[in-house]
Amino acid sequence: MHYFSELLGTAVYDAAGKRVGRVADVSVRIATHPPRVASIAIRSARGGRAQAQRAVVWADVSSIEENRIHLSVTEDRVGASIPDDTLLQLGYDLMDQQIIDVNGRKVVRVNDLLLEIRTLGEQKELLLFGVDIGVGGAVRRLLQGTVPAGWLRQLEGRVKQTIIPWNFVNLIEPDPRRQVKLNISHQALGEMHPADLADIMEELTPQERQSIFATLDDETVADALEEIRPDLRPSIIDSLGMERAADIVEEMAPDAAADVLGDLSEETTEELLQDMDREDAAEIGGLMDYADNSAGSMMTTEYMAVPHSADVEAAIHLLRKSPDLPTHFNTLFLVDESGFYRGAVSMVQLLVAAPQEILDDLKMGPLISVDQNAPVKDVIDLVDKYNLLSLPVVDEQGHLAGVVTVDDVVTALHPR
C-alpha cells in the first residue's frame, strides 16, 4: 500500500541509477475497474531552475521503495508530459476536492489517496484502492517531510483512519464533456433513497447539481426534487430547462408536483403546465387552487376507489389490472355510483376475506373523512385520534376528492 501524499516528491531514478527528478503527480485511468495508474509525472530541477514536467508510463516503473522509485528505462525514454482528458490526475483533480461517498450517503473532502500494487496476470499494476477522508490523511500531509517516516507511521496508528473504497466513490465533475471522457457514472446515486440523494444535492453548488441531475433519469430526479429544500427548487427547475422540467414534474405524485410548482414564480408555473400533458396539468392545477394549509392542499389524487357493492374477487382483479398503484397504497376506498364516499377497506382485510364477500360488509368503522376546505390542524387531529394511515378528503357534496396519507401529515409537522 502507498499513500499518494507519500509518493509526491519521491526521487525517481532511471535504469542506469541516474536521478531523473521527483514525482509531481500520478494519472489513473478510471474507466478500468479498479482504476489503474497509467503514468507518473516527473519534475526535475537542474541548475536551480525548474524544468518542464515529464511523464513515464507505468509499464516503465520497475519498483517503488520507501524513498525512491526505480525505472526500467533510461532517462532518454522519459518524454514530455502530454495532457490527456481521459486520465484523472490524482493531485490536480482529486486532492482536497469534494466527492460523494455513496455508502455513507454524504459529500466528503479528499485528504489523501490510497494506492495498492497488485499482480494482475503477468504484470504488476498500481491501483487506486480508496480515498482517505479522515484526520489521519490530514495529519500525514501536514507532517510529511518534517518528521521521520517511522515516527509519522506511529503517530498515524493512534489516529482513526477513514478510508472509502473507490467503488463507493462518485466523482463530481461539472463539465459534461469531461464526464463523458472520464466515463463517470452516477448509477449508484440513482439507486439511493430520494431523501439521501436530496441531502447530497443540497451540499453541492448549482453547477455541480446540474451536472449530476443531467446524468440521472427523470423519475430519480423527480423523487429527489420532492425532498429537496423548497428554496432550492426554483434554481434547479431553471437549470433543467422547461422541457425536461415538465417531464420531471409529470413523474411526481400530483400533490408533490403541486407543492413544487407552488414554490415557483407564476410565469414559470404557467409555462411548465403548458408543456405538460393536458390531463396531468389539469389535475395539478386543480390541487394548486386549494387554499394553503387546507386539507385539499395536502391531499393526493392518487388512490384506489372501487364500487362499495363489488365483491373481494372483483376488487383484487381490478388491482391486478392497475398499471400503477399509489406509492403509499394500504387502503381501498369505497364509493357509490355517484362518487360519494362510502367507506374504506384495509388491504390486510381484503387479502384474508373470502372472494365472494361484499366490500361494503368489510369496511372499517366509523366512517371518517375530512372536508377539502378544513384546516390542516383538523387533518392532523383526525389522523392522530384514529391512528389512520390515510384519511379520505371529500368535497362539499360528499364526493371522494382525494386522500391525505400519514407521510403528508409527518411532512406538515416537520417541514424541511
Average predicted confidence as pLDDT:
90
> Which oligomeric form is depicted?
single chain
Class based on secondary structure composition and strand pairing: alpha+beta
**Main sheet?**
8 strands, mixed
Strand content: 25-35%
Unreliable runs, pLDDT <50, ≥5 residues? none
Share of helix among residues?
A: 25-40%
Q: Can you give a write-up of this model?
A:
The chain is of the alpha+beta class and 416 residues long. Helices cover 36% and strands 25% of the residues. It is built from 19 helices and 23 strands. Strands 2, 3, 4, 7, 8, 9, 10 and 11 form an eight-stranded mixed beta sheet that branches. Strands 1-14-15-16 form a four-stranded antiparallel beta sheet. Strand 21 (370-371), helix 18 and strand 22 form a beta-alpha-beta unit. The model has no long low-confidence stretch (mean pLDDT 90).
Can you lay out the helices and strands and say which pair or pack?
Layout: E1 2-3, H1 4-7, E2 11-13, E3 19-29, E4 36-43, E5 45-46, E6 49-50, E7 54-57, E8 61-64, E9 68-71, E10 79-80, E11 88-89, H2 90-94, E12 98-101, E13 106-109, E14 112-120, E15 123-132, H3 135-143, H4 149-157, E16 163-165, E17 169-171, H5 176-182, H6 187-190, H7 194-202, H8 206-213, H9 218-227, H10 233-240, H11 242-250, H12 254-262, H13 266-275, H14 278-288, H15 295-298, E18 305-307, H16 312-321, E19 331-335, E20 341-346, H17 347-352, E21 370-371, H18 376-386, E22 390-394, E23 400-405, H19 406-413
